[in-house]
Amino acid sequence: MADDAYLFLLPDRHPRLGTALGAVGALECSETPAVLGWLQAHDASASSELVRILPVESEALIPEDAERLLVPLSEEEALRVQQECAPQSVTDMEGELLEYRETTQDWEALVHRALAAGIPAPRIARLTGLDPQDIGRLTV
Length: 140
Prior knowledge:
Layout lengths: L2 E7 L9 E2 L12 H9 L9 E5 L12 E6 L1 H11 L4 H16 L1 H10 L4 H8 L3 H8 L1
Antiparallel strand pairs: 1-3, 1-4, 2-3
């Protein structure tokens, strides 16, 4: 293991710090008895938005009252954590929002093409996350 990071529980009504543990993908330490026991002791799930991770050099940002656990990371895992924790520029974020809008603007045409290709409406709903009722309105 090359680097360390802190897992911590974000206190209620506190600004989001670090990144959610689930956002960095699978980490070897996530399956260790220490991490599993820590999560269980705090009645928390690894997929919770309140379970956060920060590189060890950012420890000063962790609220004093936050429960924390030092975890070892491989070099590749540490890089992923650092990338997920890096602040995203407003321009980049606005670009992502515009891309999302562009991909969702023509969702009806996409659904029509999928239906025409023979994909059942429930399957389209599962794959896209669209409301099944919205898809149903297009099949009428």
